[in-house]
């Protein structure tokens, strides 16, 4: 034995170590590969020895060779051997090698589990450290599952060195084994406040990574992070936290408001550029998330832009780059702030650094306006000429086209200029983007009808000079534009001045060198030109020679294409050749053929939207997955196949026969259909109606004369081939604008009309200059792209289904169930014998513990469950506004122990968050802020209404200024059928509910009404009845909760009112339910008419998503007032106010169930004190019952418990006590936000008494 | 997350490669080559960020690099890392190497790539920044080296 060791160490002396290997490789530069292969042979020998030192040395060398690109996976087992050495030196070598070359499919990895576990619990912290580091690189789902508990224990290790490594590696564990996230999370959260800054930083790091992918699960940590942000001085930690906030703010605007101030302070105080930059970035994210609701942050934007300007002006290229990057984020929401720095950005285009130029280009995209487009593009064109590298030049080219074509050519006022820019771009050498230019040419020529004449002339010039484009083989990409040129010249040949010349150019022998698909277009369009030439020359006897010469030209030239090796070219050419030969025969007999030849190419092509095909809805009753015929059985399949093939051919022929029949439908029928279709389009929200010419799209080719071809009054001859012309346009345009300005005063009226025309195109309202001042050079008429009728809205889902982070979308706010506190671990492992993974799995499967399933199976199951869970959770979170899992139904612990916590509960964190956020200095919700302002009036009005108040009386007692802002009062309603008598017994329900609990009637109840004036004018009055709730008590959230609003319409004038249309502007949260097929902005027709003095009631259903906040919806009622001799259209605006109590439904509750509910501890409390209430207690209760939809559970003297339930199933319990004119209400609810709002509303009700 | 850390010299010879996601050896070499190609053609006085992240992961990845004498230090990172922060980290890394090797030069990295790995392991773990404090890193590296020496003596 001793001898062996001695022998081993002697051997080792002769072995090469890593340094020798490196030196050897450097000395064998000529035959490196050969040298290395001999080294690998040596290494293989060394690995066969028993001496661990020799092996470790060999593995060390292999790690180096791996870096050089050699596959060393064959030595995986030896690496494991070295890893398991007891000496730290070797262990480290082994783990390093493993971290470099092990991965999930390395099968020996599963042998390492026990070794790693041993190392993790080693008394030597560096053994543990090395194991953790190695594991972080090669952790597999199996390792993660088996070691999760060990690592979790290490998170509380006494040494910070181990703690921080354990915390960091948990992220990898979560990724591979998502089930560990919930059990480990509490401890991870603890580490955020670890005394060691390194550990703290690691925890922040991990949570930031987690939160970046699934931010909403981490919102409840916001207060903690906020505290860290204001207390930490570690810039690394601060940067991470600030980045995290950037990801959280879009989900919770209130958070953003809270952040602005400390972030601004940091921006002012920090000297670290990296921190400053991240602060600015997050402020931008906050501003983006607030952009709708908060107008008063211009100071913050200014601060950001100003700081970014400093970065951009810095001489450090890195800061410049980042400044531009952040600027482009601001651009999206606050373009004006960025546009004022145009000078700086244009300056960056001249920067020597390509990355910076590219960033600046990105910014330019958002900075153009009608006014500066030409100027900016001119500048870019200069850069195109100067650009040395093709990549940057190509980038410039695409940017020019992007900038010009953005938003449907929104900023182009002069399309002639744009065409000439495109033509100039064709002179770029070696660009890859020929097809891009070509498609722009086609797009513009097809969609801007007014430009066709000009475009055709330009294209003809291009075709004539085609040799310039094709001469150089390097310019291959650019010859694509000839494709467009040929097509445009052919299709719109009626605009050609000299079709003969162009035809000749298209048939030059040189054309045969072009790519096949371009030749094919040449041939086809030569035929179109031929038709045009014929038409131009026929009828005039002197010209018949010209026509015949043209035929001869084609007959001479086409054979060249007939010989083409490209099938398409060949086919078209031979077909057309025969056609021309036939025509020539006819011509010789003096037969007029032009008419028929032209007919070959008649008809106009319309642009079709790219997604049109995809959006054709599947007709009702058509199931594309169902077999039309039963699938043939296997034995007959061949036979059947042949048959069906035959059928198909037959069917095709048949359809060909029927086609002409279809076209024979008479004109009247066609017109009728057109009308129907137009009407459909008008109602179809998905049909693009932007263009004034949309109706033209549906007209036959004959309708071409409608196209407004505007005379172009250009004084400068522009068609000089080979000269850049766009500059001249810029000059012309300037002159024109000057003229326009001068004319403006004189022709104000005319101007208005012009503006109207322009308004039909979508206009950017973001430009800093008054864009109104710029009228397009000529009427631009962009044909919109066709979409199928009833096109479906886009539902593209761009989430990557393979993203490992999807599995980590786990609710972390739910408290852990007992069963969850420990991770499921295998009780034992099979011995460390080399086995295939399959065998291993089988062994485990036999283990008779039901919950320990094999990795794969388990994962599958979990995935399924998780996807369901996620869906559910997602919904829930949206609706409950982060308030935790209050309404989630209890689930079997057995079923969900890995992922979901069973008991329904809202955690302290969640409510803390809300509390924390609601303390924000800024009002947390504009709606909430608006509510108190308008509610008092309602209440006072309500109090004065007589008990049997008819709507009219209610109106009389309303204060004067009831224009549009009164709201409903509440009244509970158990059954719909009651509704019929509603306005007669409006107080009945109130009594009833009080009687639930009050035995005696001490005093008659004061009158209460449930109608409120919604809006009125001299014609009509709208009374809104309490929103009655109809809901799915099951809390079936998928169906959305519904609120029914009854509105009484009363005719106040002497005329007949008809065609009432009720419409409401939907908010994200509340939507008016419209019949199927109606668009989101369509109004609902009120199903009755009103003779003078008559009132009637209509009900409208709203679906509500989130009931935590009160809602306000704006709406309009349009109607026609018909008098004997005239009828007028009238409009009445109103606002519907859904208070939170309107989401409550009176639900009886027995006292035992009630006390159980309170005992469960799931409800959060809140209390309210009302001073100076001097009404009898039972009146008070009645009011609460009536207006806030509660029922009395129990009443003892001056104390009562009340209960209600929201339409989404939140329980709400009140304990009302009274003493000396003071009423105290203790309330509990599983949804604190809702509770708070309801209490506010109760307070308001009583403050009016 | 840091996706990869590469060190190569002015000729593109790899001196250290650390990938935090698995790639085959061939792909790794290709990534190194292409990264070298991207980085080496850039002037000295241009910015240190490159959006050439198509090599590793998606387009949201960035290359952040620094050039010291004969060596390029390239970090490939995703959007959760702060650009300027990573530049600082590279600086810390290089300074740490300088302390550990006493005036580090390319040769140190050539012959002691294992040591460079060990130092790096104290800074970045599994693609996440572990420690940025140079003194702390050096303390840990030294302690481990001491342990190694004591084992050799045994």
Structure description:
The complex is a heterodimer of chains A (1249) and B (154). Chain A has 1249 residues and is an alpha+beta fold. Chain A contains 48 helices and 15 strands. In chain A, the strands form three sheets. In chain A, strands 10, 11, 12, 13, 14 and 15 form a six-stranded antiparallel beta sheet that branches. A five-stranded antiparallel beta sheet of chain A has the order 1-2-3-7-5. Chain A has a four-stranded antiparallel beta sheet with strand order 6-4-8-9, with no helix packed on it. Chain A is globular, with a radius of gyration of 39 Å. Residues 636-664, 688-724, 751-773, 794-798, 827-862, 868-909, 920-1003 and 1026-1040 of chain A have low confidence and may be disordered. In chain B, the strands form two sheets. In chain B, strands 2-1-5-4-3 form a five-stranded antiparallel beta sheet, sandwiched between helices. Chain B has a two-stranded antiparallel sheet with strand order 6-7. In chain B, a hairpin with a 2-residue loop joins strand 6 and strand 7. Chains A and B meet through helix 2, helix 4, helix 6, helix 8 and helix 10 of A and strand 2, helix 1, strand 3, helix 2 and helix 4 of B. Chain B: This is AP complex subunit sigma. Chain B: One of its GO terms (biological process) is Golgi to vacuole transport. Chain B: Residues 1-147 form the AP complex mu/sigma subunit domain. Chain B: It is a peripheral membrane protein. Chain B: InterPro entries: AP_complex_ssu, AP_mu_sigma_su, APS3, Clathrin_sm-chain_CS, Longin-like_dom_sf.
């Amino acid at each position: 034995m001793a001898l062996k060791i001695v022998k081993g160490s002697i051997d080792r002396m002769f072995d090469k170590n890593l340094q020798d290997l490196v030196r050897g490789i450097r000395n064998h530069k000529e035959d490196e590969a050969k040298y290395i292969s001999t080294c690998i042979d040596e290494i293989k020998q060394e690995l066969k020895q028993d001496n661990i030192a020799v092996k470790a040395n060999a593995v060390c060398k292999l790690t180096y060779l791996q870096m050089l690109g050699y596959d060393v996976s064959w030595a995986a087992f030896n690496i494991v051997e070295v890893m398991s050495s007891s000496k730290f030196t070797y262990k480290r070598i082994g783990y390093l090698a493993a971290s470099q070359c092990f991965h999930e499919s390395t099968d020996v990895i599963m042998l390492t589990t026990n070794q790693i576990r041993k190392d993790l619990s080693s008394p030597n912290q560096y053994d543990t450290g090395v194991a953790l580091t190695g594991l972080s690189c090669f952790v597999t789902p199996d390792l993660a599952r088996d070691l999760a508990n060990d690592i979790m224990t290490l998170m509380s290790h006494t040494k910070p060195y181990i703690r921080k490594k354990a915390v960091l590696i948990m992220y990898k564990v979560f990724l591979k084994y998502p089930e560990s996230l919930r059990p480990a999370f509490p401890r991870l959260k603890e580490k955020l406040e670890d005394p060691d800054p390194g550990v703290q930083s690691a925890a922040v790091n991990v949570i930031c990574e987690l939160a970046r992918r699934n931010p909403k699960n981490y919102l409840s940590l916001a207060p903690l992070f906020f505290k860290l942000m204001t207390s930490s001085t570690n810039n690394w930690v601060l940067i991470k936290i600030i980045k995290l906030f950037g990801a959280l703010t879009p989900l919770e605007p209130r958070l953003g408001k809270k952040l602005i101030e400390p972030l601004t302070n940091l921006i002012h105080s920090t000297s670290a550029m990296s921190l400053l930059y991240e602060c600015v970035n997050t402020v931008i994210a906050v501003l983006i998330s607030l952009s709708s609701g908060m107008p008063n942050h211009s100071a913050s934007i200014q601060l950001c832009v100003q700081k970014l300007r400093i970065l951009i002006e810095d001489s450090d290229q890195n800061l410049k780059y980042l400044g531009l990057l952040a600027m482009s984020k601001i651009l999206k929401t606050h373009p004006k702030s960025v546009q004022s720095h145009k000078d700086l950005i244009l300056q960056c285009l001249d920067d020597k650094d390509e990355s910076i130029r590219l960033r600046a280009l990105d910014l330019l995209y958002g900075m153009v306006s009608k006014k500066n487009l030409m100027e900016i593009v001119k500048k870019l064109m200069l850069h195109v000429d100067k650009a040395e590298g093709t990549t940057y030049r190509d980038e410039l080219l695409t940017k020019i086209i992007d900038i010009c074509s953005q938003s449907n050519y929104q900023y182009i006022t002069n399309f002639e200029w744009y065409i000439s820019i495109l033509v100039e771009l064709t002179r770029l050498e070696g660009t890859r983007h020929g097809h891009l230019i070509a498609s722009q040419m086609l797009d513009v020529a097809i969609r801007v009808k007014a430009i066709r004449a000009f475009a055709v002339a330009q294209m003809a010039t291009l075709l004539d000079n085609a040799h310039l484009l094709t001469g150089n083989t390097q310019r291959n990409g650019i010859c694509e534009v000839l494709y467009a040129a040929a097509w445009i010249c052919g299709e719109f040949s009626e605009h050609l001045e000299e079709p003969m010349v162009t035809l000749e150019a298209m048939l030059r022998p040189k054309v045969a060198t072009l790519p096949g698909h371009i030749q094919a277009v040449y041939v086809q369009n030569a035929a179109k030109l031929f038709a045009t030439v014929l038409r131009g020359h026929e009828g005039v006897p002197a010209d018949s020679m010209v026509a015949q010469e043209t035929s001869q030209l084609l007959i001479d030239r086409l054979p060249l294409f007939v010989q083409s090796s490209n099938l398409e070219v060949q086919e078209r050419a031979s077909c057309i050749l025969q056609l021309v030969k036939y025509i020539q025969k006819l011509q010789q007999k003096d037969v007029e053929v032009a008419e028929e030849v032209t007919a070959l190419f008649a008809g106009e092509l319309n642009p079709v939207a790219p997604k049109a095909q995809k959006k054709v809805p599947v007709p009702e009753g058509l199931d594309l997955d169902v077999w039309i015929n039963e699938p043939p059985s296997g034995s007959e399949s061949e036979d059947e196949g042949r048959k069906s093939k035959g059928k198909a051919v037959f069917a095709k022929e048949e359809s060909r026969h029927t086609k002409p029949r279809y076209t024979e439908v008479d004109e009247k029928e066609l017109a009728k259909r057109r009308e129907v279709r137009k009407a459909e389009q008008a109602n179809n929200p998905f049909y693009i109606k932007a263009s004034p010419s949309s109706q033209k799209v549906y007209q036959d080719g004959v309708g071409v004369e409608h196209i407004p071809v505007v005379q172009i009054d250009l004084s400068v001859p522009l068609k000089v081939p080979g000269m850049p012309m766009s500059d001249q346009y810029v000059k012309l345009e300037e002159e024109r604008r000057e003229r326009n300005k001068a004319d403006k005063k004189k022709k104000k009226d005319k101007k208005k009309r012009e503006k109207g025309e322009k308004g039909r195109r979508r206009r950017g309202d973001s430009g800093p200059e008054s864009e109104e001042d710029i009228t397009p050079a000529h009427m631009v008429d962009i044909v919109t792209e066709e979409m199928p009728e009833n096109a479906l809205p886009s539902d593209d889902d761009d989430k990557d289904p393979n993203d490992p982070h999807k599995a980590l979308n786990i609710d972390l706010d739910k408290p852990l169930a007992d069963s969850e506190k420990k991770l499921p671990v295998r009780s034992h492992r099979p011995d460390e014998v080399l086995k295939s993974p399959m065998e291993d799995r089988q062994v485990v499967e036999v283990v008779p513990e039901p919950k320990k399933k094999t990795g794969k199976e388990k994962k599958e199951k979990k995935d399924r469950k998780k996807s369901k869970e996620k869906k559910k959770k997602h919904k829930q979170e949206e609706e409950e506004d982060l308030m935790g899992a209050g309404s989630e139904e209890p689930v079997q612990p057995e079923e969900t122990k890995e992922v979901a916590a069973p008991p329904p509960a809202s955690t302290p964190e969640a409510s803390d968050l809300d509390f924390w956020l609601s303390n924000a200095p800024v009002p947390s919700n504009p709606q909430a802020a608006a509510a108190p302002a308008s509610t008092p009036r309602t209440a006072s009005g309500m109090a004065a209404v007589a008990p049997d108040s008819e709507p009219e009386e209610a109106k009389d007692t309303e204060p004067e200024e009831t224009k549009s802002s009164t709201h409903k009062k509440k009244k509970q309603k158990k059954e719909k059928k009651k509704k019929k008598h509603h306005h007669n017994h409006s107080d009945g329900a109130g009594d009833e509910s009080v009687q639930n609990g009050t035995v005696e009637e001490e005093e008659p109840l004061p009158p209460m009404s449930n109608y409120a004036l919604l809006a009125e004018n001299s014609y009509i009055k709208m009374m809104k009845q309490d929103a009655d709730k109809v809901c799915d008590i099951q809390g079936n959230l998928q169906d959305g909760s519904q609120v029914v609003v009854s509105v009484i319409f009363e005719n106040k004038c002497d005329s007949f009112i008809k065609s009432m249309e009720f419409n409401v502007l939907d908010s994200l949260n509340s939507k008016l339910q419209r019949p199927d097929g109606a668009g989101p902005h369509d109004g609902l027709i009120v199903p009755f008419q009103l003779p003078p003095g008559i009132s009637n009631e209509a009900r409208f259903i709203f679906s509500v998503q989130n009931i935590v906040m009160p809602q306000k919806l704006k709406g309009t009622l349009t109607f026609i007032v018909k008098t004997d001799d005239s009828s007028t259209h009238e409009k009445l605006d109103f606002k519907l106010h859904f208070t939170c109590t309107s989401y409550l439904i009176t639900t009886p509750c027995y006292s035992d169930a009630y006390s159980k509910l309170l005992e469960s501890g799931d409800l959060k409390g809140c209390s309210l004190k009302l001073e100076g209430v001097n009404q009898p207690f039972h009146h008070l209760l009645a009011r609460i019952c009536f207006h806030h939809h509660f029922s009395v559970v129990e009443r003892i003297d001056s104390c009562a418990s009340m209960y209600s339930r929201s339409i989404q199933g939140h329980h709400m319990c009140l304990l009302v006590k009274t003493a000396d004119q003071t009423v105290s209400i203790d309330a509990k609810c599983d949804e604190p936000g809702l509770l708070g709002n309801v209490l506010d509303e109760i307070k308001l009700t009583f403050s009016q008494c | 997350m840091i996706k990869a850390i590469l060190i190569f010299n002015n000729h593109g010879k790899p001196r250290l490669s650390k990938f935090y996601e698995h790639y085959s050896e061939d792909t790794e070499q290709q990534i190194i080559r292409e990264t070298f190609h991207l980085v080496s053609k850039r002037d000295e006085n241009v910015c240190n960020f490159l959006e050439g992240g198509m090599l590793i992961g998606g387009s949201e990845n960035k290359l952040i690099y620094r050039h010291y004498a004969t060596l390029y230090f390239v970090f490939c990172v995703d959007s959760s890392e702060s650009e300027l922060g990573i530049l600082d980290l590279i600086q810390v890394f290089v300074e740490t190497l300088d302390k550990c090797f006493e005036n580090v030069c390319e040769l140190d990295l050539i012959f002691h790539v294992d040591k460079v790995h060990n130092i790096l392991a104290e800074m970045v773990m599994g693609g996440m920044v572990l420690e940025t404090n140079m003194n702390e890193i050096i303390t840990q590296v030294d302690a481990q080296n001491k342990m190694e020496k004591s084992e050799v003596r045994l």
